[in-house]
Amino acid sequence: QLQACGGGLVQAGGSLRLSCAASGDTFSRYGMGWFREAQGKEREFVAAISRSGGGATYYADSVKGRFTVSRDNAKNTVYLQMNSLKPEDTAVYYCAADLMVASTVARAYDYWGQGTEVTVSS
Q1: CA distance 31 to 39
Q2: For the residues of 45-56, what is the DSSP string, one character each?
Q3: Centroid of chain to Cα 84
Q4: Which burial class, exposed, middle or buried, applies to 57 when counting CB atoms under 10 A from its CB (0-12, 13-18, 19+)?
Q5: Going residue by residue through the chain (122 aa), what tens digit of pLDDT does each one get?
Q6: How far apart are CA 97 and CA 31, in angstroms?
Q7: How far apart are CA 41 and CA 100, in angstroms?
Q8: 94: buried, middle or exposed (CB in 10 Å: 19+, 13-18, 0-12)?
């Protein structure tokens, strides 16, 4: 089970940190991803981080240089630090767990959190 939190209302240029806590004792075996879904748009990839041992990270071009994904396997938590936020970042953000790899494709993920809403005002 995944529980995402940390969303909210922020002005453009501001920052937010999303957290996603996982239950169970196999968190380190999962690649973790963040996706977002803006109103009227399809869910899109934001960022992903591989399973423990590598920590390789992947980002959508639209967030590269502004967002940072990280994980703390001791706390069963993955984070998304979002800086220099723009109005176009407004969306519901979802975390997801992938047993195989940290994919950029939503359908590859096995488990999803409930989403946390981020609103960036101009």
Answers
A1: 27
A2: EEEEE--TTT--
A3: 16
A4: middle
A5: 999 999 999 999 999 999 999 998 788 889 999 999 999 999 999 999 998 656 799 999 999 999 999 999 899 999 999 999 999 999 999 999 998 888 999 999 999 999 999 999 99
A6: 6
A7: 27
A8: buried
Q: CA torsion, points 115, 7, 80, 76, in degrees to nearest 10?
A: -60
Q: Which of 42, 45, 44, 38 is nearest to 91 (CA)?
A: 38
Residue type, 114: Q
Token readout for 122 is 């101009």
Classify residue 73 as exposed, middle or buried by CB count within 10 Å of its CB (0-12, 13-18, 19+): middle
